[in-house]
């Protein structure tokens, strides 16, 4: 089936071409957020409106354009679809100076409990690993 090979190759090329541009755009946003970290929430919000919001709008437009170029069903299409579908959550910080650009700090705080919960399911008894309920 000649079309299948062509589609797969095209999808790979799109991924290779799209990823660096997406990362460049996201890195711009994170560089700005690092600069804003020491400001008050009011100052942060004002700078987000004047500087970050245009970057997010450009990213959104680029994602929509890139999605029109990407074949359905591929990993790139799924990643772009996820971003566009969750756009309000991704950009919530633009409307509240107290909200972080991501939830990495929260995830790092809860990780020990999440890992502990999984580890407590198992117990070593008599030299063997058994499910503990």
Automatic annotation (TrEMBL):
Residues 17-123 form the Transposase IS66 central domain. InterPro entries: Transposase-related (IPR052344), Transposase_IS66_central (IPR004291). Keywords: Plasmid. The keyword DNA-binding does not apply. It holds the Pfam family DDE_Tnp_IS66. Coiled coil: none annotated. The keyword Repeat does not apply. This is Transposase IS66 central domain-containing protein. It comes from Cupriavidus taiwanensis.
């Amino acid at each position: 089936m000649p079309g299948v090979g062509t589609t797969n190759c095209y999808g790979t090329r799109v991924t290779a071409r799209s990823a660096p541009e997406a990362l460049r755009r996201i890195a711009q946003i994170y560089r700005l957020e690092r600069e804003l970290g020491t400001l008050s929430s009011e100052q942060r919000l004002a700078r987000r409106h004047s500087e970050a919001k245009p970057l997010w709008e450009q990213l959104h437009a680029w994602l929509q354009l890139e999605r029109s170029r990407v074949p359905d069903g591929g990993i790139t299409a799924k990643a772009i679809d996820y971003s566009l579908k969750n756009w309000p959550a991704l950009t919530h910080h633009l409307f509240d100076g107290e909200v972080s650009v991501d939830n990495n700090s929260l995830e790092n705080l809860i990780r020990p409990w999440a890992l502990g919960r999984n580890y407590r399911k198992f117990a070593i008894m008599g030299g063997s690993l058994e499910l503990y309920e």
